[in-house]
Amino acid sequence: MGSGHAHRLYRHGRSPVHRLPAHPKIAAVLAFVLVVVATPREAMWAFGAYALLLAAVAALSRVPARHLLTRMLIEVPFVAFAVLMPFVAEGPRVEALGMPLSEPGLWGAWNVLAKGTLGVAASVLLASTTELREILLGLQRLRMPPLLVQIASFMLRYGDVITDEMRRMRLARVSRGFTARGVRQWGVLAKTAGALFIRAYERGERVHLAMLSRGYTGTMPTADETAATRAQWSSAAALPLAALAVCLMGWWTP
To answer: What Å distances lie between residue 218 and 93, 147, 238, CA to CA?
Structure first.
């Protein structure tokens, strides 16, 4: 946390959204997601309004739509799960494209897709406008348990290291003529996984010893403790407050 680490999700910019401190943005995104989850699924128009709010934030932050859409592909497994719900859920059936689909399953699929997509979009916007180091410091300023913040810090920092190690091991196998074509090659892949675990464990021990030799006592140093101003909190609160107004209208509108 003491040094910069640009993540692939982050997109450098000088927009008003980029300039906001991390902890108001984290709180705003969390409040926005909670409001979206609390919205009744029958109020379809409300989810369109939420999408427009996020589009306005994206336009204000000057983050291209392609950047957001490509990084939202992480929700594809949830989309696949939602698509299956109308076929496997029980309850009254309705005809659609000549197929009998479960009505509760259709509502459930819509609920998962709408709320999940909005949550992922808000998270991607946060990651695109806030550096990884600032997100971790923001969690610390929001009084998240320090141990969890450190675990998240190490996981995010060394995830790329482990990925690079896997890539080097794969290139080593390919250079020796190895190709995974069937069950017979599973033994080699299992040994590779074991070797990767041992290397990661040993690297973690070396990093921990290096930290102890530099005076690590269980907490990470913070270089900046600047508090957010009232104006910055107000700017960050604009998104969840607007979403809350939409949510209340969704509950009151028949």
So the answer is: 57, 8, 37
**Confidence at 6, pLDDT banded by 50, 70, 90:** low
CA 37 to chain centre: 16
pLDDT tens-digit readout, 99-115? 777 878 888 888 889 99
Count how many Cα atoms sit within 13 Å of the Cα of residue 205 in the half-sphere of its side chain. 5
Please state, in angstroms and rounded to a whole number, the distance separating the CA atoms of residues 190 and 181: 14
- Dist CA 40 CA 44 (whole Å): 8
pLDDT digits (tens, 9 = 90+) for 216-244: 776 666 655 567 788 988 989 999 999 99
* Max Cα–Cα distance, the chain, nearest Å: 69
Dihedrals phi, psi of 36, to nearest 5 degrees = -60, -45
Tokens 């336009």, residue located: 59
